[in-house]
Amino acid sequence: MSGQMSGQTSERMSSPSPVAEALAVTKRFGSTAALQDVSLCVMPGESHALVGRNGAGKSTLVSILTGLRRPDTGEARFAGASAPALADRDAWRERVACVYQHSTIIRDLTVAENLFVNRQPARRGIIDWRAMRREARALLDHWKIDVREDARAGDLSVEARQLVEIARALSYGARFIILDEPTAQLDGDEIKRLFKRIRELQAEGVTFLFISHHLQEVYDICQAVTVLRDARHIVSAPVGEMPRERLIEAMTGERGGLAVAGAASREPLAADTAVALEVARLNGHDYEDVSFAVKRGEVVGLTGATSSGRTSVAEAIAGLRAQARGEIRIGGEPLPPGDVPAALARGVGCVPKDRHHEGLVLTQSVAENASMTIARVLGKFGLVPPAKKNAFGRSAIEALGIVAQGPEHVVSGLSGGNQQKVVMARALANDPNVLVLIDPTVGVDVKSKEALLSVVDRVRGEGKAVLVVSGELDDLRTCDRVLVMFRGRVAAEFPAGWQDNDLIASVEGVSLHEE
């Protein structure tokens, strides 16, 4: 017995300490439990996935691991030692950093200025700009980040800005980096480069906590995974022991994958079905000679790499930006370029790409956001009686399954999936004939995806035209056909029932090259 105990003690002593831990953490906000007895253990040199539906508790756990909130019970630990006091920000920066989905880089400053913000090297009380640029160059070279130290941060790609944020965190001494939805705004090649860099940094002793709703990425880059559901820890396991169906079941509490009706089994539209949307020889800053039509009751996908021009075309149709040349017709009538009120009046509804900056007023309520496009319909001169506005908000909550305390609930307090449902409610408010959805399920969980994509099937059945503009394969499965854009042009068309590999190859331009 003593020999067995001695062996166990020796094994424990020889095993490395976790880089970061949350031990039986509970955090409540009023009567709501954001975390309930949650534990997490991240080992050195690994990429550890943290997954769960919106509202599962991921953001609250990250806020505790980064010292932004104190747990009610339990504790955070780093390398076996208790976390620093919340007020000791320098000590926290030495242990952990978070690269958020929405960049904290200051766009009008240079890369060097961002790397050393609030800690610039000085000489005789004056910033030593030459020394700062020299130290920035050395830091970037050390971590193999290929950007100019004097480049304006706002001119960098999303991928490069993320790497600069990682370099800034590493410069404080942190070797534990939390990546929050790092691929949400990246295309296929950029994701591959980011993952290659993550693997290289892991080999150099950097540890990552990787948060993503793209489950395939968990299998591509992570070695371990922890699932939260309803503020509780469900499972932690090596990724190799968590097949996709089991992972989804752990996240949702239900068996199976994404329950969304595909388009392959639909009856074809009648040949004489009216055209609702027509795009003719459209040209813009990153696309040219784009033409296609969408009939009433048809769902058309528009996909391609982030730089393919697909988003710009969609924004032109919604009136969010003006095309340089070409024509957009809604129900046979031309649409003035770059005119959102005109697009709304002609029956165009839109879920924009960035819900935080284009889709929502975060300080306003569910009812106020959902009814924003129809204020003049609900009340004279756009002055809507609160009772009427709240009644509309309640109908939106019921129709889309928005989880909120009521129509007066401020949208900043909702989960990402429920915020996106509010944006969808606003897009549907004017009963559009053409619905344009730009990346409609980005950053939302499996169940919210199902709810949002079920709207596509519903409005299609009502005879509306739907344009789904996305790089997500699950979004595109709802489409009767998918147009692929490559380098600003429509390069291919796929009918419903396409194979993943064929569509992905076309998006990456493989099918366009001669043998």
TrEMBL record:
Q: Which UniProt keywords apply?
A: ATP-binding, Cell inner membrane, Cell membrane, Membrane, Nucleotide-binding, Repeat, Sugar transport, Transport
Highest taxon in the source lineage: Bacteria
Q: Which GO terms describe its molecular function?
A: ATP binding; ATP hydrolysis activity
Establish whether keyword Cell inner membrane is in the entry: yes
Q: Which CDD domains match?
A: ABC_Carb_Monos_I, ABC_Carb_Monos_II
Residue intervals of the ABC transporter domain: 20-264, 269-512
Instruction: Spell out the PROSITE patterns in the cross-references.
Output: ABC_TRANSPORTER_1, ABC_TRANSPORTER_2
Secretion signal: which residues? none
Provide the transmembrane region boundaries: none
Cross-referenced InterPro entries = AAA+_ATPase, ABC_carbohydrate_import_ATPase, ABC_transporter-like_ATP-bd, ABC_transporter-like_CS, P-loop_NTPase
SMART domains attached to this UniProt entry = AAA
A Pfam short name: ABC_tran
* Descriptive protein name: Sugar ABC transporter ATP-binding protein
